[in-house]
Design brief:
Largest sheet: none
CATH superfamily: AhpD-like
Order of helices and strands: HHHHHH
Number of strands: 0
CATH class: Mainly Alpha
Strand content: under 5%
Number of domains: 1
CATH architecture: Up-down Bundle
């Protein structure tokens, strides 16, 4: 069976490399802004990842949800913390978020099966 975490990361890396190779100044600046926004600041990285996860779920972006789930996992957030945040996202976003909640839960399980030492 295919590894959904590895598939996601491989595709994301391949396409990011292609996008950045075109040397579009706006795209590069957006990528840089995104990277810098999630660095430690007045809020710690874990809190910022949960904020990103909730916003991604409310906006119904599965790729963004996967990215923030994996980063949350690597940062040491627990399943309980992540699911509580996703509960808030579902409350705010409404029942239309539930399919994304299901996929998020499935992806978190894949992260747990993969283990922390192999998470990208």
């Amino acid at each position: 069976m295919a590894n959904p975490v590895q598939e996601f990361n491989d595709y994301r890396q391949k396409m990011n490399d292609k996008l950045l190779a075109d040397n579009n100044k706006i795209i590069k600046r957006i990528f840089n802004l995104d990277t810098n926004a999630y660095m430690e600041g007045a809020l710690d990285v874990k809190t910022k990842e949960l904020l990103g996860l909730v916003a991604s779920a409310v906006l119904r972006c599965d790729d963004c949800i996967k990215y923030h789930l994996e980063t949350s996992y690597k940062e040491g957030l627990t399943k309980e913390q992540v699911m509580e945040a996703l509960g808030i996202a579902t409350l705010v976003g409404g029942t239309i978020v539930i399919p994304h909640l299901r996929r998020a839960y499935e992806f978190w399980e894949a992260l747990e099966q993969q283990g922390p030492e192999t998470a990208v």
